[in-house]
Amino acid sequence: MRRRLTRSTFERPIDYETLAELRYQLRRFLRVRELAARAVGVAPQQYLLLLQIRGVAGRQPVTIGFLAERLQIHHHATVQLVDRMAQQGLVARRHDERDRRLVVVELRPRGEALLRKLALYSIAELKSEGPALASSLRRLMMTASRRSRDFANGRRARTRSIVTDRNSIGLSGGV
Q1: How far apart are CA 165 and CA 175, in angstroms?
Q2: Distance CA 46, CA 52 (A)
Q3: Cα–Cα distance, 53 to 112 (Å, whole number)
Q4: Helix-helix angle 109-168:16-39, to 10 degrees
Q5: pTM given for the model
Q6: Angle, to 10 degrees, between the axis of helix 44-56 and the axis of helix 75-87?
Q7: Under a CB-based contact definition with an 8 Å cutoff, are residues 92 and 105 in contact?
């Protein structure tokens, strides 16, 4: 969901320090997983693709379009990624049984084994890295919430004083 940018959006103070810390913690978190993927012989995007396939397996068909959205890459880039992974024996592609126009991507045993190894490593690392990441996010959310509340209270207070001023000089009615 997109938020509309308004003048008040730009008037709010920004906690750059906390935002920078969160981005740093996110980057560290992702970099460790990227290095682990490369260590077992796959590109980071290949690991993400394997994870997305397994993450929704059985709940819905995993199509090229679905994977493109989940990886936030173009459709044609997803096709190329799936083609390379199919050649490596990590995934298989087939046409959907109900809609032959759709290409469904499934894990092969080799892809499943690789994903399991990386996921176990990722979960273990999350136990050590997770608290710092969660702390940064929590700090940013608290700061944003507090500043939004303060900003809204300041705006409300000014609006009330305008209404009071109008009423005091005999201008009643809608503001």
Answers
A1: 11
A2: 10
A3: 10
A4: 170
A5: 0.73
A6: 90
A7: yes
Show me where the domains of the chain are located: 23-161
| Radius of gyration (C-alpha) of the chain in whole angstroms | 25
CA distances from 17 to 6, 23, 174 (A): 23, 10, 42
Long-range contacts of 105-109 (CB under 8 A, 24+ apart): 105/49, 105/53, 105/62, 105/63, 105/64, 105/67, 106/53, 106/57, 106/62, 107/50, 107/53, 107/54, 107/57
What are the tokens at 80?
Answer: 């190329």
Residue at token pair 């920078």: 20
Distance CA 67, CA 73 (A): 8
Looking at residue 54, what DSSP letter applies? H
The correct answer on CATH 3.40.50.1820 for the domain covering 23-161 is: no
Looking at per-residue pLDDT, the higher value among 149 and 94 belongs to: 94
* Token pair recorded at residue 55: 């993450």
pLDDT digits (tens, 9 = 90+) for 115-146: 999 999 999 988 988 898 899 889 888 887 77
Measured in whole angstroms, how far is the alpha carbon of residue 119 from the centre of its chain? 18
